[in-house]
Every structure is written in structure tokens, then in C-alpha cells.
């Protein structure tokens, strides 16, 4: 587990109030045009060779710009980044605290590590969303049937190059408790079926910065922690593997936090 040192907590705003006001004004005025540009690029360029890698980096940069404009910082240790840069043949699982989680993860994961998300297949009914999602390599999941969803996800993961990983939220949705929610078995089932390891990632403090029901986050730092690879035990049951995975992430989530700046 990474040693996290000298990382300010959420009680310390990143910018002074006047700077935060200026940044958020810029976001309100210019943000929609910038993110529409990111959204429409696939309609024009999706067929070009090498588009997916180029577009994925653009999306990552857009997430970084959004965090900066919101006076948010997402941090991961150099050790954690190096581990992810070298990570192959894995599935990434991360706890889900707020709407900031995906943006923060996109910001900290090094470019050397490719990953993608699974999304409801209903989003593919829109031509704009379908082109953008396909360009970014997102995986459509048919949620109407659990067995079909698992088959689709397993097939997609099996066909992925070793460098790419799908990101799954084992809690299924943002947890409403101060601890981790109950885990669904999807990630473990896919890992066992494909022979991939699981790379657990624990996110801290995103819910404190953007609680449920809030539209604009407070300024502060989101801490993201990479855990050692988790290898499924095919001699154990799925439930036993799932409990072992959740226990490892719980231990990191409940560990004492670094001192926060006053």
C-alpha cells in the first residue's frame, strides 16, 4: 500500500476565493463550448487511423482541465502511477464516492496505461454519444439481462489488448454510507473467466468535496490509492474471492489518513 505523505486534505482549498470565482466563471462561460468540441470530434475524425489513442488522451486532458477550473486536485503517489503504467492484463476496480471519481481517475492515471469504462447500451442509441463512446473505446452493457451483460463484458475484456483495462465500480453506484458498499460479483466473475488479475484502486474524499445533492464541489484534494494486484483463487468460491477483494479495499479505505492542513 502506498505511503501518502504531505498531501493536503479537503479542509485546505486549492485556491483563494477570488481565484476560485474567476476559474468557475470561465468554466460557466467557456466550458460548454470546450466540452462540446470534445464531444463532436469523433463525428469528424473517428475513422482516422490512430484516432482512439489520440482521442483518449484528449479526453484525459479535458478531465484535468475541468478539475483545475473547479480548483480541485487529484493526487496519486509516484509509486502508484508507476505501478499503473506497468500494469497489464488486468481489470481495474474502484470504489464510487461521487460524480468526481471518473474525472479524478482520468487525471491521475498515466498515459502509458489505457483503460475504458462500461456504460449502459441505451447511450448508443444517440448517434453523437455512440460515435464518441466508440471512439473512446467504451464498452456497451445490456443491463436488461444480467447474463447478457456478463457475456458482453467478458467478451469485450477477452478481446482487449493486455495494455487496456476496463474500469468497474464493484459497488454498482455511489455509496450512501461512510464506508464501502456491498460489492457485486461482476469484476470477479470477469477476472476468473478471462484469467486477468484485478487492480484495486481506492478513492478518498471525493464525496466530502461533492456530497449527494450538491451541484458545485468545494475546493480541495482527492486522494487516489493503488493497491497490489488481486489474483482470484479458482480453488475458492466467487463469494470468497469477492469478500477477500472487499476486505483489501476496506483496509485501505479505513486506514488512518494523513494529517490535513489547518
Automatic annotation (TrEMBL):
Transmembrane intervals: 26-47
Pathway as given in its UniProt record: Lipid metabolism
Keywords: Acyltransferase, Membrane, Transferase, Transmembrane, Transmembrane helix
Every Phospholipid/glycerol acyltransferase domain range: 90-206
SUPFAM superfamilies, sorted: Glycerol-3-phosphate (1)-acyltransferase (SSF69593)
Protein name per UniProt: Phospholipid/glycerol acyltransferase domain-containing protein
Amino acid at each position: 500500500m502506498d505511503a501518502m505523505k504531505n498531501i493536503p486534505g479537503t479542509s485546505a482549498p486549492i485556491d483563494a476565493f477570488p481565484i476560485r470565482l474567476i476559474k468557475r466563471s470561465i468554466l460557466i462561460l467557456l466550458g460548454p463550448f470546450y466540452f462540446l468540441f470534445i464531444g463532436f470530434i469523433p463525428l469528424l475524425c473517428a475513422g482516422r487511423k490512430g484516432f482512439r489513442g489520440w482521442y483518449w488522451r484528449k479526453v484525459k486532458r479535458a478531465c484535468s482541465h475541468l478539475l483545475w477550473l473547479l480548483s480541485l486536485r487529484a493526487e496519486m503517489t509516484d509509486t502508484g502511477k508507476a505501478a499503473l503504467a506497468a500494469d497489464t492484463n488486468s481489470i481495474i476496480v474502484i470504489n464510487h464516492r461521487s460524480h468526481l471519481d471518473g474525472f479524478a481517475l482520468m487525471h491521475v492515471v498515466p498515459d502509458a496505461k489505457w483503460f475504458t469504462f462500461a456504460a449502459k447500451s441505451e447511450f448508443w442509441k444517440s448517434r453523437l454519444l455512440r460515435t464518441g463512446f466508440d471512439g473512446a473505446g467504451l464498452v456497451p452493457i445490456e443491463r436488461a439481462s444480467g447474463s447478457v451483460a456478463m457475456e458482453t463484458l467478458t467478451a469485450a475484456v477477452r478481446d482487449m489488448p493486455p495494455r487496456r483495462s476496463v474500469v468497474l465500480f464493484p459497488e454498482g453506484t455511489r455509496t450512501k454510507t461512510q464506508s464501502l458498499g456491498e460489492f457485486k460479483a461482476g469484476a470477479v466473475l470477469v477476472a476468473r473467466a478471462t484469467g486477468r488479475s484485478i487492480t484495486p484502486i481506492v478513492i478518498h474524499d471525493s464525496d466530502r468535496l461533492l456530497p449527494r445533492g450538491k451541484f458545485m464541489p468545494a475546493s480541495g484534494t482527492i486522494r487516489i490509492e493503488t493497491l497490489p494486484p488481486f489474483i482470484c483463487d479458482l480453488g475458492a468460491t466467487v463469494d470468497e474471492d469477492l469478500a477477500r477483494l472487499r476486505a483489501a479495499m476496506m483496509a485501505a479505505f479505513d486506514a488512518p489518513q494523513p494529517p490535513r492542513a489547518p
